[in-house]
Description:
The protein is mainly alpha-helical. It has 9 helices and no strands.
Amino acid sequence: MKSLSSQYWRNGYLYSFSQENKHNYKSFESVQNDKNLLNRFEKYLKTKDKIFLPGEKDLNLAKEQIVALDSTNLNVNNALDILSNFYDREENNRMQSEKEDIRELLLLEFAGLFNGTEGRLIQALNNDETVQTALDILSNNSAYHASLSSIETIEN
């Protein structure tokens, strides 16, 4: 899990969003088909406490201390604004790059709410690359036999 996704998860935003929005859907399938799920989640995030990227809290503390020393220095204020803008852009960039991960995590939460533990597990397995690779090998007879023959070679 990447940094932004993990912070949303740790803060409970994924689960609380799912709980608060379950009534908008008739079934888990309707959640899966919702093209606006991420837009709704982004809107929801605006009502929550801000997520801080690594170093951002330290920057805010430094800003407060520098402003307390000299709030009139334009060079310092401009530099602090540039750093603040960097963090805003970085959060937006991470949201874009982690979009699919965030969507999958939201689907996990909704799967659990609609279909219980079993539904959540099934959804998790659908997105597990190891499980998908194993299923691909098992469904492809030649790949299956090739994987077994390499094991036999190692054992001998």
